[in-house]
Amino acid sequence: MTDILHYNEIKKIIPLNKSLIPIIEEGFINLSKNKTVTPPIMRLDIEEFYGEADVKAAYIKGLDSFAIKIAVGYFNNPSKGLPSSGGLMVLLNSETGVIKAILLDQGYLTDVRTAIAGAIASKYLSNLDIENVGIIGSGMQAQLQLESLMMVRNPKTVYVWARDQAKADKYIKTMKMKINVNFINSKNIQELCKNCQILITTTPSDKPLIKNDWVKKGTHITAMGSDAEHKNEIDPLIIRNCDSYVPDKQSQTIILGELHHAIKNGLINKDKKFNELGEIINNPTLGRKSNDDITICDLTGTGVQDTAIARHTYNLFISNKI
Amino acid sequence: MTDILHYNEIKKIIPLNKSLIPIIEEGFINLSKNKTVTPPIMRLDIEEFYGEADVKAAYIKGLDSFAIKIAVGYFNNPSKGLPSSGGLMVLLNSETGVIKAILLDQGYLTDVRTAIAGAIASKYLSNLDIENVGIIGSGMQAQLQLESLMMVRNPKTVYVWARDQAKADKYIKTMKMKINVNFINSKNIQELCKNCQILITTTPSDKPLIKNDWVKKGTHITAMGSDAEHKNEIDPLIIRNCDSYVPDKQSQTIILGELHHAIKNGLINKDKKFNELGEIINNPTLGRKSNDDITICDLTGTGVQDTAIARHTYNLFISNKI
Question: Which among A66, A70, A80 has the least Cβ separation from residue B90?
Fold first, then answer.
């Protein structure tokens, strides 16, 4: 019998908190150890309605279940009073293929596992004693990325930049209810870069927002907005000039992520091999080597994160039921 | 609110019958008119357990919903008392991406739409006045293909070949309860080819079962077993020598189907363009030109069939509810 988990139930079982960090870390470690079967992302564009559906899947060898996820993004939905993202996850028995559960999470678990990946990136790559954080963008991930960063670092001030300054104000108002730090609505990104030691980009931009010259020594950048060929948040020069570039999954970032633009511009050889996030988690000395290093984590979103969080959700659901 | 349709309900709403032929035909026509967005199949192999999960999807322009299907095949399942195939379909709103329904069909709708595609192939490509049909294989599709062939042709005798003759006997016993024709357990495929005007292959064979020399003038072959790179039921020479080779979707049969082996063996130029099944449905004169023609339909299974049957199932479900 297939269990059906509904949105409200899932939100109750899986609040965004620190306990999820080791769950997602394990997924990345398995990915880097080639203990996974992860086919390329399936993508279906519904151009007439400015919509897309993506399917991700990952089987982690040795685990009794795996997930296939459908993620939906419809960018005109907010004008119709609907959320722009949605979807579900399907959990299958690894040994028999029987469908154990359907998680009708409407994209919530994707939001959560993406936010946790950001926390993991900063945990392993940023300096410990950071003062200020810069958030580029003001959407759902701008909120969740900051919330999860607070699990691993203690910034004093958060600089926020959004294309629409009113949205940045609204973001600050919302986040002040949740997090006790100073907030500054930053009028330009250059100023934000000057003041912050961690930069988190969360936009669907298709032109670089952060210029190479603006990035100071010691900065860590988590770029999580680029999950499609045309998206690009970071000046490709930064990828070439930084001390440590870390993809979540390099076979994906050469197609979808920031790396892809650096390769296309001839700044990086397409065969160059970088340490993936899972390798850094497993051996943190492969990441930041000095306080002055500039580090970048390029997050495109991987099926192992989905399988990790879907399994965890289901396990908690079952143990609550018993 | 997402509707959840369960297996028994779906079987009740969608019995295998003639009314499904125009539904699936319309899907093929849309496919051939490039009115669809159909990404390549996603495939996940779980080698340790001799299992696989495939994802197919198709959006048909102008329709208010589209389906994404997860199909599961675990070939050791029968030894555990479980069916070897399973899966589900997800129906999404084309305009908003909202998930309208989940069809927990356990692979039933795939079985049905595959069988109906076989009926469509014989309807448009075989001679009208056939006497005998040869069924190669004795599994679920061997049953369903014959049942749906009876919707479009009236054979007197059905020759059955299976690697295990006891299974052919069991097949005949089962089918005699459903269909009033003569059955012959054919000891060899050459004899079967000699006697039959329609041949339907339904096996997971990885070596050709039907030799070129055995195929008589006027024969129509529906090959539906080959849905993976290594599968191959038909001598590639037949593909070269036949009068009309018809793929369900050529961009798929060059990778998965019988055509792929003919190309690999240098018998067919990889750039040669064939009329797809949807083009034949739309203009039957493109298919069989004389009673002596040898025709082949290569069915690898397409997302448009899934979207067509998922939409039809959901529409019937809703109209029953009202």
Answer: A70
Q: Write out pLDDT tens, residues B79-138.
A: 999 998 999 999 999 999 999 999 999 999 999 999 999 999 999 999 999 999 999 999
pTM of the predicted protein model: 0.91
Q: Specify whether the CB–CB gap between A59 and A36 falls below 8 A.
A: yes
Out of A48, A53, A97, closest to residue B53 by CB: A97
Q: How far apart are the CA of A99 and the nearest CA of chain B, in angstroms? A: 7
Name A103's Cβ contacts closer than 8 Å, sequence gap at least 6. A5, A10, A88, A89, A90, A91, A109, A310, A313, A314
Measured between CA atoms, how close is B126 to chain A, in angstroms? 35
* Chain A, chain B: beta-carbon pairs less than 8 Å apart: 122
Measured between CB atoms, does B75 come within 8 Å of chain A? Answer: no
Q: Is some CB atom of chain B closer than 8 A to the CB atom of A101? A: no
Are B88 and A99 a contacting pair at CB < 8 A? yes
φ, ψ of residue B128 to 5 degrees: the values are -75, -45
Single-letter code of the amino acid located at A147: E
pLDDT digits (tens, 9 = 90+) for A169-181: 999 999 999 999 9
Q: Is the dihedral of CA B76, A2, B110, B169 positive or negative?
A: positive
Distance, in Å, from the CA atom of A232 to the CA atom of B248, rounded to the nearest integer, reads 38
Q: What is the ipTM of this complex?
A: 0.89
| DSSP characters over A71-109 | EEEETTGGGGTS-SEEEEEEEEETTT--EEEEE--TTHH
Answer with the residue of higher pLDDT: A299 or B322.
A299
SS3 per residue for B283-307: CHHHCCCCCCCCEEEECCCCHHHHH
- Looking at the complex, report in whole angstroms how far the Cα of residue B5 sits from the nearest Cα belonging to chain A: 12
Would you call A39 and B43 a contact, using CB atoms and an 8 Å cutoff? Answer: yes
Where helices occur in chain B by DSSP H, the ranges are 7-13, 20-32, 108-125, 140-149, 165-176, 189-195, 236-241, 250-253, 258-264, 277-282, 303-321
Measured CA distances, B21 to B140, B281, B316 (Å):
19, 11, 16
Name all domains of chain B by residue range, CATH numbers in brackets. Answer: 3-109+304-321 (3.30.1780.10), 123-301 (3.40.50.720)
Chosen for mutation from B85, B96, B103 (greatest number of chain A CBs closer than 10 Å) is B96
Contact status of B59 with chain A (Cβ, < 8 Å): yes
**8-state DSSP, B210:** B
Looking at beta carbons, which residues of chain A come within 8 Å of B102?
A: 88, 102
User: A297: distance to nearest CA of chain B, Å?
Assistant: 27
